[in-house]
Design brief:
About 40% of the residues lie in helices and about 15% in strands. The chain is α/β, with parallel strands linked by helices. The protein has a domain at about 5-175 and about 215-240 and about 275-290: NAD(P)-binding Rossmann-like Domain (Rossmann fold), CATH 3.40.50. The protein has a 7-stranded parallel beta sheet with strand order 3-2-1-4-5-6-11, sandwiched between helices. α6 runs parallel beside α8 (about 245-255) and α6 packs across α10 (about 295-310). The longest helix has 22 residues, at about 85-105. The chain is globular and about 55 Å long. It binds nicotinamide-adenine-dinucleotide and uridine-5'-diphosphate (2 copies). One uridine-5'-diphosphate binds near residues 61 and 104.
């Protein structure tokens, strides 16, 4: 049995991770400041004797005793990370320093939930880990993109300077149950709009692409990365390489929900990436990881979850 710290454990991905690690007979310390996360996501875990919840902001030091750290704390939806951009950078950078300091004192492995946003609006397509990205340092997405890039830098400096056992995954758009229905991300927006019979808001012409990964696949890859051989740092892309336009996503959601919603076109947000698709050969070779759940099946699970949230 390991004692595992999950920061951002009450969020969308964090809650699934806590549940999986708990089911695998570990002791979980879930740390969250509830900025975008919710007690509802972890309510069913609170009764377990191996689950502990701590309200804490990781921009402040944290002194606890654990065996592994998964660092997920950070708002992930553009709406939320741009609401208080200074706090977003603080969470990514100061939060990483504190969690790395903790890992260094305890001499334990630490995994960073990085993002495909480190590639910015990519000029190389699809994206391999070796691509260095195209990020606007002064745009509205920079608080998140540059914060996450700096966190990767810190992880590698602690690795080189302090010989820390670091693991970095770059997560591509992931969706599923426990996403906040009001989160503002595309999958939750489209499903909620379709279920409520409201207009579906396409930003721009809807021809921009994303590659959507179902949450169980993502969490599987994350845990495999944490338990990979010591010295294997990544970064590793974790995502589903099947690419869709936002128009295709909207059409699929309308079909699966049987909704009568109409498409409406809104302004494309500044610096919105035009395309995104991971190359996942490193994850396949090093982690024997492949996504299993296709978009149709994953969307059905997500729709079921959101339906319950409307009732
Ligand atoms: P989320 O917003 O649902 O979860 C983030 C959690 O972190 C929330 O519970 C929030 O309250 C908590 N948090 C935020 N700031 C904090 C702070 N300073 N101290 C403590 N807790 C804090 O988002 P998510 O989709 O679950 O994303 C989790 C992680 O994965 C994030 O680091 C995100 O950048 C990364 N990621 C997610 C995706 C995706 O598609 N879901 C893609 C790329 C990267
Ligand atoms: N830190 C922490 N918990 C610990 C150890 C360190 O939160 O168990 C914080 C510490 O407060 C510091 C940061 O992590 O701000 C970086 O620690 P490190 O030891 O790397 O740097 P230093 O303390 O020398 O600045
Ligand atoms: N998007 C959209 N309608 C919405 C929300 C988002 O067309 O209601 C688009 C957005 O402009 C982007 C894509 O969907 O091109 C994915 O957006 P999301 O906020 O989910 O994540 P991102 O990958 O941009 O961080």
């Amino acid at each position: 049995m390991k004692r595992i710290l999950v920061t951002g454990g009450a969020g969308f991905l964090g809650s699934h991770l806590c549940e999986k690690l708990l089911n695998e007979n570990n002791e979980i310390l879930c740390v969250d400041n509830f900025y975008t996360g919710s007690r509802k996501n972890i309510h069913h875990l609170l009764d377990s004797k191996n689950f502990e919840l701590l309200r804490h902001d990781i921009t402040h030091p944290l002194f606890v005793e654990v065996d592994q750290i998964y660092n997920l704390a950070c708002p992930a939806s553009p709406v939320h990370y741009q609401f208080d951009p200074v706090q977003t950078t603080k969470t990514s950078v100061l939060g990483a320093i504190n969690m790395l300091g903790l890992a260094k004192r305890l001499k334990i492995p630490i995994l960073q939930a990085s993002t495909s946003e480190v590639y910015g609006d990519p000029e190389v397509h699809p994206q391999p880990e070796s691509y260095r990205g195209n990020v606007n340092t002064i745009g509205p997405r920079a608080c998140y993109d540059e914060g996450k890039r700096c966190a990767e830098t810190l992880f590698f400096d602690y690795y080189r300077q302090h010989d820390l056992d670091i693991k970095i995954i770059r997560i591509f758009n992931t969706y599923g149950p426990n996403m906040n229905p009001e989160d503002g991300r595309v999958v939750s927006n489209f499903i909620m709009q379709a279920l409520r019979g409201e207009d579906i808001t396409i930003y721009g012409d809807g021809k921009q692409t994303r590659s959507f990964c179902y949450v169980s696949d993502l969490i599987d890859g994350m845990v495999k990365m944490m338990n990979s051989e010591s010295g294997f740092t990544g970064p590793v892309n974790i995502g589903n390489p099947t690419e869709f336009t936002m128009l295709e996503l909207a059409e699929q959601i309308i079909e699966l929900t049987g909704s009568k919603s109409q498409l409406v076109f809104k302004e494309l947000p500044e610096d919105d990436p035009m395309q995104r698709k991971p190359i996942i050969t490193i994850a396949q070779d090093k982690l024997s990881w492949m996504p299993k759940v296709g978009l149709n099946e994953g969307l059905m699970h997500a729709i079921q979850y959101f339906k319950k949230n409307i009732e």
